[in-house]
């Protein structure tokens, strides 16, 4: 009788794992299909409704000659014009050679200098709709070094390593990575340009991304639901804190690069203060998902190994795990953000700017708010996930149903 009961338990467990695998496959397929659908959504925002760059083509090119005789070098800065000869490597103009001018304005962050043999991205400006001959090319603009192939290689290498190390979970993680990138570029940013309030748009998109990522990685299980609720609780707390502290610190939002440029580009309706606030909790949401998933996975494993554990006992286990995780994750967030303002702080140190002066500068204050508010929300994710896990993972479950 005991043998038959044992066989029945194994059969039910195998059936439960089979259902879980099928749900994972179905959900992953839905997310993949949605990703492909979003990719083809147009993102043109020209005011007259025409697509930008409609009368131009982008091609690969090779620099075959570079004349630097008119470039002036003043310390680390280069100014002047670099005359280039470029050979087209792709498209219907392949094999043709064009002259181009690379203007150096004296700003290292945007200036590019090319050498013979460099592979570059070239935009060919055309004279009209008829584009069957080289005579239609008005001007060839060398945009920058060509990096599309390198980007594709890097992405494929990342995917290969991720799958090789983590298997099916890695494949789902990569899918969530691609899905998040597509949604940010094709949904969130266009929505804000259309006039949707940045805080509202970012909250909705963050909820969608959190659901997709946690359920892709954790599965459509109690563990995935716990991670989702914990992460979203942290995001909501962080969004409220971002709103309050941004106003309290009198941060105007233009501290973010290109924010002011957007206003002058025909998008004066943008609320750049709200844009800054939304960036605070969007930037920290990934770390919150990471921490909530770790806590949820740990609590699920404890529940599997100790089925008799009480709800409060499971919550205490989650809180105990979260103490160590939150302690290291806050430092991780600090180190991740510090790269954004390292050069700025080094400049202040090199110029002998007093610490109190630096702290009260809006650029420094904005980074302090960005970092500490993100850490504030991150610390609260752990107990929120532990409580959610205690209510969900420790609930009464049917035999064979996994956490």
Summed up:
This protein has 403 residues and is α+β, with helices and mostly antiparallel strands. The protein folds into two domains: 56-146, OB fold (Dihydrolipoamide Acetyltransferase, E2P) (Beta Barrel), CATH 2.40.50; 195-392, no CATH class. The chain has ten helices and six strands, in the order H-E-E-E-E-E-E-H-H-H-H-H-H-H-H-H.
What's the arrangement of secondary structure elements?
Elements: H1 2-39, E1 56-67, E2 72-74, E3 77-88, E4 97-105, E5 119-126, E6 137-145, H2 148-166, H3 168-194, H4 198-218, H5 222-248, H6 259-264, H7 272-305, H8 311-350, H9 355-359, H10 362-392
Antiparallel strand pairs: 1-3, 1-5, 2-3, 3-4, 5-6
Helix pairs in contact: 1-3, 2-3, 3-4, 4-5, 4-7, 5-7, 5-10, 7-8, 7-10, 8-10
Structural class: alpha+beta
User: What is the helix content?
Assistant: 55-70%
Q: What is the overall pLDDT average?
A: 82
Rough shape?
A: globular
- The tally of beta strands, per DSSP, is 6
User: Measured on Cα atoms, how large is the radius of gyration?
Assistant: 27 Å
Given the structure, what is the number of helices?
Answer: 10
Largest sheet: 6 strands, antiparallel
Which residues sit in consecutive blocks of at least 5 with pLDDT less than 50?
A: 8-16, 46-50, 130-134, 397-402
Number of domains: 2
Order of helices and strands: HEEEEEEHHHHHHHHH
Separation, N- and C-terminal Cα atoms: 28 Å
> β content, as a range?
5-15%
């Amino acid at each position: 009788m005991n043998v038959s009961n044992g066989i029945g338990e194994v059969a039910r467990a195998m059936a439960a794992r089979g259902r879980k695998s099928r749900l994972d496959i179905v959900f992953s397929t839905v997310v993949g299909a949605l990703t492909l659908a979003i990719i083809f959504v147009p993102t043109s925002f020209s005011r007259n409704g025409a697509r930008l760059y409609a009368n131009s083509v982008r091609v690969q090119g090779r620099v075959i000659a570079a004349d630097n005789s008119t470039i002036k070098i003043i310390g680390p800065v280069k100014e002047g014009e670099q005359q280039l000869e470029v050979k087209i490597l792709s498209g219907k103009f392949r094999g043709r050679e064009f002259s181009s001018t690379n203007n150096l304005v004296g700003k290292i962050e945007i200036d590019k200098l090319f050498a013979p043999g460099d592979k570059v991205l070239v935009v060919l400006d055309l004279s009209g709709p008829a584009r069957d001959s080289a005579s239609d090319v008005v001007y060839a603009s060398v945009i920058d070094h060509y990096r599309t192939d390198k980007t594709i290689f890097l992405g494929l290498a990342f995917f290969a390593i991720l799958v090789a190390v983590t298997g099916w979970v890695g494949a789902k993680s990569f899918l969530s990575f691609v899905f998040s990138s597509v949604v940010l570029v094709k949904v969130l940013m266009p929505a804000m340009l259309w006039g949707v309030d940045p805080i509202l748009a970012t909250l909705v998109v963050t909820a969608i991304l959190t659901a997709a990522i946690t359920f892709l990685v954790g599965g459509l299980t109690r563990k995935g639901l716990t991670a989702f609720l914990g992460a979203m609780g942290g995001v909501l707390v962080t969004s409220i804190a971002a709103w309050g502290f941004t106003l309290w610190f009198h941060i105007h939002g233009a501290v973010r690069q290109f924010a002011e440029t957007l206003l002058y580009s025909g998008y004066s309706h943008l609320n750049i203060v709200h844009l800054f606030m939304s960036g605070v909790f969007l930037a920290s949401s990934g770390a919150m998902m990471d921490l909530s998933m770790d806590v949820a996975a740990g609590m699920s494993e404890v529940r599997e190994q100790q089925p008799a554990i009480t709800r409060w006992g499971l919550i205490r286990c989650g809180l105990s795990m979260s103490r160590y995780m939150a302690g290291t994750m806050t430092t991780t967030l600090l180190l991740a953000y510090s790269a954004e303002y390292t050069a700025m702080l080094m400049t202040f140190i090199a110029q002998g700017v007093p610490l109190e002066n630096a702290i009260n500068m809006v650029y420094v204050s904005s980074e302090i708010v960005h970092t500490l508010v993100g850490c504030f929300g991150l610390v609260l994710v752990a107990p929120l996930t532990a409580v959610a896990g205690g209510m969900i993972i420790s609930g009464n479950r049917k035999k064979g149903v996994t956490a």
